[in-house]
TrEMBL record:
InterPro entries: DAP_epimerase_AS, DAP_epimerase_DapF. Keywords: Amino-acid biosynthesis, Cytoplasm, Isomerase, Lysine biosynthesis. The record marks 158, 207 as: Could be important to modulate the pK values of the two catalytic cysteine residues. Its main location: cytoplasm. One of its GO terms (biological process) is lysine biosynthetic process via diaminopimelate. It is an enzyme of class 5 (isomerase). Transmembrane segments: none annotated. This is Diaminopimelate epimerase. It is found in: Cytoplasm. It catalyses: (2S,6S)-2,6-diaminopimelate = meso-2,6-diaminopimelate. Catalyzes the stereoinversion of LL-2,6-diaminopimelate (L,L-DAP) to meso-diaminopimelate (meso-DAP), a precursor of L-lysine and an essential component of the bacterial peptidoglycan. It comes from Celeribacter neptunius.
């Protein structure tokens, strides 16, 4: 990928998908500007702007736009459902259409206008051990770890634990330990889910490369798939995360996720700051 030096004042949007917190940079019509160092500098909540993920929009030959995701530790995320919904909202409004296409690392995703909400088809779950990926062949529906989580890939790795009482779970303690377990060669996102009924789940998340967040779209998809695989829920569920509610539906054409998006503010990042860190 061609990379160019960011302009001294780099415009960005702050958007939220259920409190999942994003910086969005529009690099259409130029080379990409985001590097691991720039992502870390902007992502620093004390010296930068702070975000859960940074999404960089780029010109696309295959879809309406290309979209790349970065975590606040400077690592890349292969998927980010809530940022895809946020950028989907921008593109739906800009193009005045009720459907747009967004190419991410995992392929071309469709975002659909649902009035106050945006739906995204996050694609088919990856259920084979080497697709997630895991370090060696195991039963992905019952991983050989304490708590026997389900492993699901959604373009990024997830380990989904089913728990009796979500309030009793030490999310950072348990999440960090699992993120770095050698079973996950690319580390993993970690979800803790309490089943409330066949169509309702409460979920909390520990995100790879970021930590606790108020929501995680790909994690919500992975959790809905895991619950359905285990026979705990139907294929369509409402899910309460720390930041609000999502609707998930595992259909023949992929996992659809629907929820609200919010534009928080527009600003510019002074990239001369980079020389001082
Ligand atoms: N918040 C994102 C997921 C980020 C996943 C990222 N932490 C990774 O390294 O895979 C979402 O809405 O899907």
């Amino acid at each position: 990928m061609q990379q160019q030096t960011p302009p001294p004042n780099l415009p960005f949007l702050k958007m939220h998908g259920l409190g999942n917190d994003f910086v969005i940079i529009d690099s259409r019509g130029r080379d990409a500007v985001v590097t691991p160092d720039l992502a870390k500098a902007i992502g620093d909540r004390h010296c930068g702007v702070g975000f859960d993920q940074l999404a960089e929009i780029r010109s696309s030959e295959a879809a309406d736009i290309d979209l790349d995701f970065w975590n606040s530790d400077g690592s890349r995320a292969g998927a980010c459902g809530n940022a895809t919904r946020c950028v989907g909202r921008l593109m739906l409004d800009e193009l005045g259409r009720d459907e747009v296409t967004i190419r991410t690392e995992r392929g071309i995703l469709i975002a659909r206008d649902m009035g106050d909400e945006v739906s995204v088809n996050m694609g088919h779950p990856q259920l084979m051990w080497d697709e997630v990926p895991l370090s060696h062949p195991v039963d992905t529906e019952f991983l050989p770890l304490e708590g026997e989580p389900v492993a699901v890939g959604m373009g990024n790795p997830h380990a989904v634990f089913f728990v009796e009482d979500i309030k009793a779970v030490d999310v950072p303690g348990w999440g960090r330990k699992v993120e770095f377990d050698p079973l996950f060669p690319q580390r993993t996102n970690v979800e803790f889910a309490e089943i409330r009924s066949r169509d309702e789940i409460r979920m909390r998340v520990w995100e790879r490369g970021t930590g606790i967040t108020l929501a995680c779209g790909s994690g919500a998809c992975a959790t809905a798939v895991a619950a359905s695989l285990r026979g705990l829920t139907d294929k369509k569920v409402r899910m309460e995360v720390d930041g609000g509610w999502l609707t998930l539906e595992w259909r023949d054409d992929g996992v659809w996720m629907t929820g609200p998006t919010q534009l928080v503010f527009k600003a510019e990042f002074d990239t001369s700051f980079l020389e001082r860190v």
